[in-house]
Amino acid sequence: VDECQNMSNNCSQICNNTIRSYTCSCIQGYELSSDKLTCVDINECQRFRPCYQVCINTEGSFTCECEQGFELNNNNLTCSVSDPCDFGHNCSQICNYINGSEICSCMKGYALTYGSQTECEDVDECSLNPSPCNQLCTNNDGSCTCSCMNGYRFGSDGWTCDDINECLENNTCSQNANRTNAHGSYCVSA
C-alpha cells in the first residue's frame, strides 16, 4: 500500500513511501518536529547566523539586511560600507557612516583640523620629526618635495643627499695643485 498516494499519511509537507510504511520529510527551510509528521520553520538566524549584520527569519528561509551606512553585497549575506554621506554631509573630504554615525576622515597628506571633526587641513610634512627629507623639504598641498643643497645630490637610495666630489667630476683645480673636496662646495686648491 502506498500511503503517500492514498492520503492515509499525516505528513504536513512531503511523504516518502517505504515498504509497509512511510516517512515524512520537509522542504528546505523546514525540519520535522518531534512528532515526525509536522514540519516547522528553521530559524536560520539563530541556528546558523548566516548574515553579516541583520538577519530576518522568514517562513522557510531568511533575508539579510545591513545597518544604516552599509549595503548588501551580491552574495546577499555580507555588507560593505556605503557612502550615505554623499548628499549633504558636513565632511570637507571623506565621509563614512560607521555604527550609525557620520565619521569624517582626510585624504593622505591631510589631517582633521585641531578641534574639528569635519574640516581637513594640509599636513606640513616638513615640520614632522623626523623629517621625511634628508636635507631640504618643501611642503606641498597634501605632500612634500625633498631636494638637496647645492653641492649635493640624491644618492642611490633616492633619499639621502650625498656630497658631489667636484675635484673628481669637474676638475676645476689646476693639475699641479693639491685638491681637496669641500663638502657641499667646490674643489679647493691648497
From TrEMBL:
GO MF annotation terms: calcium ion binding
Pfam families: cEGF
InterPro entries tied to this protein: cEGF, EGF, EGF-like_Ca-bd_dom, EGF-type_Asp/Asn_hydroxyl_site, EGF_Ca-bd_CS, Growth_fac_rcpt_cys_sf, Nephronectin_domain
Keywords: Disulfide bond, EGF-like domain, Extracellular matrix, Repeat, Secreted, Signal
Subcellular location: Secreted, Extracellular space, Extracellular matrix
PROSITE patterns hit by this protein: ASX_HYDROXYL, EGF_2, EGF_3, EGF_CA
Domain EGF-like: 41-80
Source taxon at top rank: Eukaryota
Disulfide linkage: C45-C55
Family: Belongs to the fibulin family.
Record-given protein name: EGF-like domain-containing protein
Source organism of this protein record: Trichoplax adhaerens (Trichoplax reptans)
